[in-house]
Amino acid sequence: MNNTDTIAAPITPLVKSPVITIRISGSNALKVYSLMEKGGKSINISDIKPNYVSLYRFNIKSENLHDDVLSVYFKAPHSFTGEDVVEISFHGNPLLVNAAFTEIYKLGIRHAEGGEFSKRAFLNGKIDLTQAESIQELISAKSIEGVNSAYNQLQGSLRFELDNIKDILLKMKAVMEAKIDFPDEDTVDEEIEILKNHCKNVLSKIDGLILSYKSYRNANRGLEIVIAGKPNVGKSSLMNAFLKEERAIVSDIAGTTRDFIKESLYIGGIPVHLTDTAGIRSSSENIEQIGIDRSRQKIETADIILLLLDISAPLTDEDYSILEDTKNSNRIIIGNKVDITDNKFYDKADIYISAKENINIEKLVEILREKTSAHDNETKSNAAAITERHHTILLDIKEIIKKINNSLGIYPIDMLCIDLERAINLLSEITGDNYTEKVLDIVFSSFCIGK
């Protein structure tokens, strides 16, 4: 990839639509105006005003085609990429735009690779690496919370937090280097106390960012919600009631669901993955037992458990076993089959419903909406869209700082200073102040053309 080439690509989908917009970036971007005219006259480049939208006729001579287009010129360095940028909006026919690209490429302009506009913005100092990543996160976010987090990161919220951490690390480095240059036994305890306080502060800030990562992951990955209970308590009926369609097989025969069934939906604006599990019971049938074992695994890893009980009959040992196993879990206890009994054999449920007759299902959805919001609020942070890359590096930094904190007063300060320098360098990898081509390839490889 040559970063000095002038590049072009569509920045809207290249499909039939009202408008298709393309972007040209680089030192030769203004050459594209040689393909346009205004009022039957060719365009004098010196007359083009930056940041003004103008109407032109775009000529595609090879196909004898024309289109009336809107174009705007962003003069370097006041553009997204930091280079001269021209954006042109065509009528939304891909045939027309592809023909226009053919003419543009004849000017010595090449097609942009995926993420190349954003990469140039980073290399030209318009955005840091976390902001570049936030563009992709903003586009791919699966919830409103995810959109907000990505936007905050684009505005520099993560950079702000990381700069605060870096400032503390640099203060630690200054204390350590002063100790190395001017050793004084009388101040050892005081300096160790200062460094330990700095370590505590850094660890607290990193833990906050890790919580932000968990919140962002939940907002985009979705919460895992599992419907659990013994066989034939109405789990599949409840699944169908949520989905408003017969996705799961409903039968009076115990053990009908032999494996879990998973569907995705939104509750309270949060994506959730709803799983109907095989009924939990002792089984001598190998195939059913495999499904039961997988159900137990799903229950153990669930964010929220919908524990279903049949209140039309006395609870069994299987019911009590599931109640005991999930007592420390984030669960909603649901008494089912109120349509066939007035006598509740279990009076400690959070809600009573009939999955079959759709009684109180909306109330259950409301409880679940509150539960998902509460779960999200436990780790909710609008600080930033912490990605897996950030999270991995933050964990490495955390371990280094914990090691330094535990080693103060035990190991020589110059050894700890080396560890501290490594933590500072790792922090710079997140923002891109310290980067390699491999890191850039990893970050921008997921970007689509035009970003």
TrEMBL record:
Subcellular location field: Cytoplasm
Which residues does (6S)-5-formyl-5,6,7,8-tetrahydrofolate bind?
R23, E87, K126, K451
Coiled-coil blocks: none
What NCBIfam families does the database record attribute to this sequence?
Answer: mnmE_trmE_thdF, PRK05291.1-3, small_GTP
Co-factor(s): K(+)
Q: Which gene encodes it?
A: mnmE
Cofactor binding annotation: Binds 1 potassium ion per subunit.
| EC code(s) of this entry | 3.6.-.-
Top class in the EC scheme: hydrolase
Q: Name one GO cellular component term.
A: cytosol
Q: How does it assemble?
A: Homodimer. Heterotetramer of two MnmE and two MnmG subunits.
Please report the name of this protein according to its UniProt entry.
Answer: tRNA modification GTPase MnmE
The UniProt record lists the TrmE-type G domain at: 222-373
Residues annotated as binding GTP: 232-237, 251-257, 276-279
- Report the source organism: Candidatus Mucispirillum faecigallinarum
Which positions are annotated as binding Mg(2+)?
A: S236, T257
Q: Which GO terms describe its biological process?
A: tRNA methylation; tRNA wobble uridine modification
- This protein's source sits in the domain of life called Bacteria
Main location per the UniProt record = cytoplasm
